[in-house]
Specification:
By secondary structure, this protein is α/β, with parallel strands linked by helices. It is 39% helix and 14% strand. It contains 15 helices and twelve strands. The structure holds pyridoxal-5'-phosphate. Pyridoxal-5'-phosphate binds next to helix 4 and helix 5.
Length: 400
């Protein structure tokens, strides 16, 4: 962080962030350190850097100045001591679980999570003899129902809020208190909110995960992930997993995320404002049976969302009265909205979780997670909301 801005507000930090290290140039924007390795002046210098008695860079899988800048900025935004940038959001999720859980251990997770996270927890952790104990939506905010799942072998609690794709809201402080009672970390996937709207660590979480692919990058042009936490936790995750399993972020991607972050606040403000307008419009539409958006007072956990989020972000889901067949017609009829997975981009993206992002859930699992077969998810972009509404309106008009 530049010394001139230490008392500045968060919006200012997001723009100015951290000063560039290892450069003496006068660039406004720090250069991209596209290098795999770093030179040493002589053998004693190399030895000192490898031993850690002198600061410096060795090799870009372990550390890189551009990636470092992003890590420092993300730690600043999440209010943690440190952060790691990873190759993808999924590698951030996997790195945390694989570095904290051993064969015979278990983790306790909400059941409504990103489709890839669900596949990892439900299908793949078993091959390492790590069990996932799922909490179902009706119990997300019921400590008495979650508590019995936690035992001496539980290594972490995991949640996503707002949850993908149903926009369920999970009470972070309630889960943090449970984690604290058992002396284990609470891990929160903060992708849907971004650090501008929600600060899990301030609510008691120990580790925050992001898919940087979404709002942090914000332009749909990279895949990346973030893990934020205190120094000892980040060191553990780096040394026991990331450094040697190797899911490092490319300096070029780190540079693009740093560029994206500069506009995070203005983008989030627009995403939130447009999403509220569109959610309210959808709620009154005669062909829509239900809208899932935490900003609506009709949302079951609107009060918890209002307590832990600054605003309600840009993602919503809805059910069409005609069910899945009519839903497919709408997906085929939209013109401005783009049929694609992912979220948090400048463009409005629309998708069908049961056949796309959450195809990893078997039909009975979709039901348990509260994902209706016809549910449609919308990530509201930066277009004018009137145009997005006009597009949805003409698509809904295609249904007889
Ligand atoms: C996209 C996403 C992920 C996975 O991130 P990738 O960058 O695609 O690997 C994890 N969690 C949530 C909530 C996501 O939306």
């Amino acid at each position: 962080m530049s010394k001139h801005h230490t008392t500045a507000k968060e919006e200012t930090h997001i723009v100015h962030g951290v000063s560039s290290c290892h450069t003496t140039s006068m660039d406004l924007v720090p250069p991209i350190h596209m290098t795999s390795t770093f030179k040493f002046t002589d053998q004693p210098h190399a030895q000192a850097v490898f031993e850690g008695s002198q600061p410096g860079y060795l090799y870009s899988r372990i550390s890189n100045p551009t990636v470092d800048q992003l890590q420092t900025k993300m730690a600043l935004l999440e209010g943690t001591q440190d952060a790691i940038a990873t190759a993808s959001g999924m590698s951030a999720v996997a790195s945390v679980v694989m570095s904290l859980a051993r064969p015979g251990d278990n983790i306790v997770s909400c059941n409504t999570v990103y489709g890839g996270t669900f596949a990892l927890y439900h299908d793949h952790l078993a091959q390492f003899n790590i069990e996932t104990r799922f909490v179902y939506p009706r119990d997300y905010n019921n400590a008495d129902a979650i508590s019995p799942l936690i035992n001496k072998k539980t290594r972490l609690l995991y949640l996503e809020t707002p949850a993908n794709p149903t926009l369920d809201i999970v009470d972070i402080a309630l889960w943090a208190a449970l984690a604290d009672t058992h002396g284990i970390p609470l891990v929160v996937d903060n992708t849907f909110a971004s650090p501008w709207l929600q600060k899990p660590v301030a609510l008691g979480a120990e580790i925050v995960i992001h898919s940087a692919t979404k709002y942090l990058g914000g332009h749909g042009d990279i895949i990346g992930g973030i893990i934020a936490g205190d120094n000892s936790m980040i060191t553990t995750i780096k040394e026991s997993y990331v450094n040697h399993f190797g899911p490092c972020m490319s300096p070029f991607n780190a540079w693009l995320v740093l560029r994206g972050l500069k506009t995070l606040v203005v983008r989030m403000e627009r995403h939130c404002r447009s999403a509220m307008t569109i959610a309210q419009w959808l709620e009154t539409h005669p062909k829509i049976s239900r809208v899932y958006y935490p900003g609506l007072s009709s949302h079951a956990n609107h009060a918890i969302a209002a307590k832990q989020m600054k605003d309600f972000s840009g993602i919503m889901a809805f059910d069409i009265k005609g069910g899945i067949e009519d839903g497919k017609k709408v997906l085929n009829a939209v013109k401005l909205c783009t049929l694609a997975v992912s979220l948090g981009d400048c463009e409005t993206l629309i998708q069908h979780p049961a056949s796309m992002t959450h195809a990893t859930y078997a039909p009975e699992e979709l039901k348990k997670a509260g994902i209706s077969p016809g549910l449609i998810r919308l990530s509201v972009g930066l277009e004018h909301p009137d145009d997005i509404i006009a597009d949805l309106d003409q698509a809904l008009a295609m249904i007889s």
